[in-house]
Amino acid sequence: MDGNAKPAFAMRESIMIETARKKTARLLLGWYDTAGRDLPWRRTNDAYEILVSEIMLQQTQVPRVLPAYRRWLETFPDWQALARAGTAEVLLAWAGLGYNRRALALQEIARQVVENGLPDSEEGWLRLKGIGPYTAAAMTVFSLKKLAVPIDTNIRRAGARLLLGKPYPEPRDDGKLKPLLAEFLCGSRRFDDLVQALFDIASLVCLKAPLCPTCPLKSACSASVGFLAGAHTMPSRPSPASRERRHRNKPHPDRIFRGRILRLVREAPTGRPLEGLGPEIDPTFDPAHDQAWLDAMIERMVVDGLLCRSGKRLKLPA
Ligand code: SF4
Fold first, then answer.
1. Which of 15, 48, 139, 222 has the lowest CB atom count within 10 Å?
2. What atom of ligand 1 comes closest to residue 201's alpha carbon?
């Protein structure tokens, strides 16, 4: 047997893979150029505006983020404005988005940037307190225009189906997925658009129950044959909400009640009396079983910097 047969075969195979990836990227960008979402944070290179969108989009859907994003940029147009704002002002501007600690984290990041300057690498972003691996990679791609691989739930789902053939990927698949995504992205000068296109295909087509028959990538996707044949069953996983802290028979996790407390405090410029708070956030409130739970929740919010006590009233921190 010819000693060069194996390397030649391996080379042919890698050329075929490369060609297939380029074809997939072309299909995806072609679809994105006509069907992708036109979102304001995609029309800017400003790192501050991009970071605001990234933090807001963690845990909150695009339609709810859009009006809040515009309002936020009017109130705090740049790093400096946000860094010097008072906590109450920041929490008021975050109204409607939920997961309120993100507002304080965003302000903390702004203060670090004002003090130390803008990071110029993925590692630099990662060094900032409040920035995790996903956000550091997203900032690198979208604001620095350098190659990085941001993997969130959406990118994981679409990317792993497309490149790994894994119908219902989990975070533990990221180790295999990341190098494949890096190769997929680095083959295109429009790698930043490719990341946005993956977000959009995951949000509009490659849903948990994917719409493969109408997907523009079905001819190139490693998971499409199985989905189209009905061979993949959606695994039953506990929803993220069911893993959250929850008090006895309450229908919602504590997060929802914390949000209600903060909304009432936001709406009371002179402070919200503690008295009567329980039944207002929870119609089934039973002091005998729920008062200690409410007190502990308030205490955690005070520790988190979301509330402060003033006598028998709750206020936003100054
Ligand atoms: S063909 Fe199906 S699984 Fe593959 S990317 Fe499209 S929607 Fe997702």
1. 15
2. 5
